[in-house]
Amino acid sequence: MVEPSGLIPAEVWKQLGMRDALARRNIGGVYRLLKTAGISQRRIGELTGQSQSEVSEILSGRRVMAYDVLVRIAEGLGVPREWMGLAYSGDSEPAPPSGEEVTEEMRRRNFVNAIVGAVVCGHPVLSELLDAPRLDVPTPLPSRLGMTDVSVFEQTTTRLGLLDRESGGMAAREALAAAAVTGERLLNAQCTDVVRQRMRYAVADAHRLAGWASGDVGLPDHCRRHMHRALDHTQGSPVRVAQVLAAAGDMEKHYGAPNDALKLFQLAAVGTARSHDPQIGAVLHGLSASAYLTLGHPDQARAELSESRAMFADAADGGAGSLPFFAFYGPGHGLLAATGTKLADYETARTDVRQALNNRPDYDVRCNALDTIVLATILINAGELREGTSETRRALGLVTELGSQRARDRLEPLERALLARRESTCQDLARRVTAVRSAGRANSDRSGEQMSGQSAL
User: Fold this and answer.
1) Residue 194 — pLDDT band, cuts 50, 70, 90?
2) Closest CA to 182 of 136, 227, 216, 215
3) Which letter does DSSP use for residue 99 in this model?
4) What angle do CA 301, 306, 311 make, to 5 degrees?
5) Cα–Cα distance measured from residue 116 to residue 122, given in angstroms and rounded to the nearest whole number
6) Does residue 446 lie in a domain region?
7) Given pLDDT bands bounded at 50, 70 and 90, which one contains residue 132?
8) 17 and 97: one domain?
9) pLDDT score recorded for residue 218
10) Rounded to two decimals, what is the model's pTM?
11) Is 6 exposed, middle or buried (0-12, 13-18, 19+ CB in 10 A)?
């Protein structure tokens, strides 16, 4: 075997990872290994005919591609050219790197060497030094899908849904989207018809939650894509179709399309009419009330709100098998309080929203933030400024904890209520609300730009 010259100590060339870095012409990796062995940047520059700044740039990640520079580095370090696939000189094309097989043991040694270098010397571990595999390789599928696998998938989706409620869509969106895609891949495994149906329902839930999280961070197109995929997996179940339509419609209403939202709510109501589940009807009527009000039909909104309250009362002992999506809502939910506030029904709305805040768990930060915004708005509009400003500060604290553009958007009615008051405290808080909303919108715009051209999933 050809040995290197004595310019660099022989033990350095025997260092784990050095031959691999040379074969890959990873000059930055070679220089890092030389530094690990105690050879300074200045000495490396002297040997290779490079300035110290050039050596520093290569250490920072600049790749060396020019053939003549590679030859000069090989000669300067006393490295046989064939170690770098540079067996020929002149204008000839360089030979390819060594075809020596990289074994599992070599990968392991390279890994350990790189980790030791990182811990002892503080230089970063680069994937090209480790011959590392890609990190985005799909997880191997089971050969057969069982009910236990479905249950684990459902539990994972439920946990991610709770994370979405606790921290906003920013924390959970990508994980939920990945879970939905993984669920679709799992459907390719062999399984019984019963297992496949339950798995499809689980995938529908994952897409619905991923869609909701996408809308929550200001990505309505991604929301629609996920909701559409969710419908594909509902197997025509009217109640499951209804929960997707209700979620999609609520998000469309938020993004300024109340008429389209109302169509989705009405379609959901038609599909579930035979279920005779008052809980489902109460939620759909409550969502419709908000849409009618946004469309400028307050009388119709009051009628829908009244119907919703009556059906919530009928469902007090539990619906006829509502899914968790519908069971989540109740007569004291902010769903009705927000509409009541816009109708100037402050007393009833105040009772609704306080009941919701008292009964909801602390971990549900987003819903608590939305209802605290409603409560603060009610109090400011009613002239109860002392408590109203206190609740405004609490709402701002909750909103800033969340990665949720939707929560920031929902601050707008509170902002208007504060601006309508001449008191200096209200004006100061209005400016704070404006700043929070503006910061959120700027982040959302940047996120949208980064996502443009990418898959909705």
Assistant:
1) very high
2) 136
3) -
4) 125
5) 9
6) no
7) low
8) yes
9) 93
10) 0.71
11) exposed
Rounded distance, CA 455 to CA 221, Å? 10
Per-residue pLDDT band for 99 (boundaries 50, 70, 90) equals very low
Same domain, 118 and 157: no
Nearest partner of 182 among 153, 222, 210, judged by Cα: 153
d(CA 209, CA 154): 12
**In 3D, which of 361, 416, 421, 425 has the Cα closest to residue 389?**
425
Q: Which two tokens stand for residue 379?
A: 């109090």
DSSP for 189-244, written as a single string: SB--HHHHHHHHHHHHHHHHHHHHHHHHTT-HHHHHHHHHHHHHTSTT-HHHHHHH
Nearest to 374 by CA among 353, 405, 343: 353
> How far is the C-alpha of 368 from the C-alpha of 395, rounded, in Å?
8
Residues 78 and 155 in one domain: no
Q: Are residues 83 and 46 in the same domain?
A: yes
Q: Are residues 219 and 190 in the same domain?
A: yes
Whole-angstrom distance, CA of residue 57 vs CA of residue 63: 9
- Cβ proximity of 368 and 356 under 8 Å: no
The letter for the amino acid at 363 is Y
Please state, rounded to an integer, the average pLDDT across all residues of the chain. 82
Structural domain count, the chain? 2
Distance CA 346, CA 338 (A): 10
Q: Say if residue 299's pLDDT is above 60.
A: yes
Contacts of 400 (CB under 8 A, 6+ apart): 436
Residues in CB range of 63: below 8 A, 6 or more apart:
27, 28
CB 34 within 8 A of CB 73: no
- Average pLDDT of the segment spanning 345-361: 84
* Residue numbers of the domain that contains 201: 143-235
Domain boundary among 78, 96, 130: 130
Residue 213 is encoded by which pair of tokens?
A: 């999280």
